[in-house]
Structure formats: C-alpha cells, structure tokens
Write a structure and sequence with these properties.
Helix content: 25-40%
CATH class: Alpha Beta
Order of helices and strands: EHEEEEH
Number of domains: 1
Structural class: alpha+beta
Number of helices: 2
Strand order of the largest sheet: 1-5-4-3-2
Number of strands: 5
Strand content: 25-35%
Largest sheet: 5 strands, antiparallel
C-alpha cells in the first residue's frame, strides 16, 4: 500500500468535506460526518478530516498508479467545488516528507 497526504487551509473545510462525500455517495461507498469522511473508490480510499484550520486528505491505494488516480479524483472535484476560493491544485506529499 502507498499513501499521500494533502492539507488545504480554508475556513470552509467541513463544508467541502460534506459536499465531496455527498457527491461521491451517489456512486461509491462513503461514510462521513461534519468533520470526518471516507470515500472508497475502486482505485483507492480517501480519508478527509476537517477542522477550523482547513481540510486534510489522506489517499491510500495498492500502487502508485492507483494512488495518482485517487488523488486526481479528489483534487478535480475539490477544485471544482471550491472555485470561489481559487484553489488550483493540492500539494500531495508522502507521509515521511510531511513537515
């Protein structure tokens, strides 16, 4: 298994967490609350955690290719939903590189 983490500072982390989870729940297995969500894609799993500082996303998959696909799905949707905040891309990092 491989994983990566992205953190995004926003005052609306909970809003975007719920929006993403509700959107994906129409097609995949999802569980969520106002502060924690899990989206289980065929390519991998994304775990989202929101607090007052923003949104933290952890992507986990079987290999690098599926990890990249999981990251892409989450990022494309988040960029689209957060258009008012001008989010262009997330900075994904391997856990051992996170400061």
């Amino acid at each position: 298994m491989v994983q990566s983490i992205a953190e995004w500072r926003t005052e609306h982390g909970g809003k975007y967490l719920v929006q993403l989870c509700k959107h994906f729940a129409h097609k995949i297995d999802v569980s969520y609350s106002e502060t924690h969500g899990e989206c289980r894609f065929s390519c991998g799993t994304a775990t989202l955690d929101a607090d007052d500082d923003g949104l933290k996303i952890m992507a986990v998959a079987a290999d690098e290719e599926q990890l990249a696909e999981t990251q892409s799905v989450i990022e494309r949707h988040l960029v689209r939903f957060a258009f008012r905040e001008n989010l262009e891309a997330l900075q994904w990092q391997a856990p051992d590189r996170i400061a």
